User: What shape does this take?
Amino acid sequence: MNRWKASAIHLLISFCVVGTITGLIYFLWFPHALIRIAGMDRLLVTMLCVDIVAGPLLTLIVFKIHDLRQTRRDLAVIGLLQAAFMGYALHTAWISRPVFLVWSVDQMYLLYANDLDAEDLAQAKAPGADDLSWFGPRLFAVTLPADPEARAAIFTDLIVRQKALERLPAHYGPYAGQRARILKVAEPAAPASLPKWQTPASLASAIAETGRPAAALRLIPIQSARAASMLLIDARTAEPVRTLTPPPAD
Assistant: This one.
């Protein structure tokens, strides 16, 4: 075996490992193309560059057919460094994974694991809102009491605690219970419904990706701690369908 063959084998192994992990993160944690507002694509690109490019390149440099003992030691070090970086990247992805997709007041919010406090989770009443999801975001809607005094008490508490309403699972309720209200404020999936900072091309692309006609879809704003965009939802069920690509950051 020469260094080129060894490097090619290393490249294939790295590609399989990183490709599998990337696919799981993309499809499991970020349905509806939510990765577009999560900033996780930058982490995945870094994983690809380091593990797929750097590892095989180092193998190409250190491989010595005449000194296999030294070569094995060098390859073991390279493998350990790759594994350490991969472990760090996965830990970073895990602690900031998306856990809730919450409708609040007039828009959708994507919340990450590190957006929520354990004491707030413990106060949740809706099933599934009292712990952090492992397999993609769970769908909820903020549900406030009809009594004006009870509502006033909630908003006073928000001011005192300096926390946003969507970050308090105690106020989560079933998403289906707010379907009519969500569809009432949703806009047609047309360029005229877009904010000035969102391009018509991103809407056209997202609609094409759904395979549905624009008339079967509606638009609502979506926001996370990392970016904001627009979200296509089903015009009958209000279920999330596809996230538009946000404009590039300045």
About this structure: Helices lie at 3-29, 40-62, 68-95, 118-121, 148-161, 179-185, 200-210. The longest helix spans residues 68-95. The first strand starts at residue 98 and ends at 104.
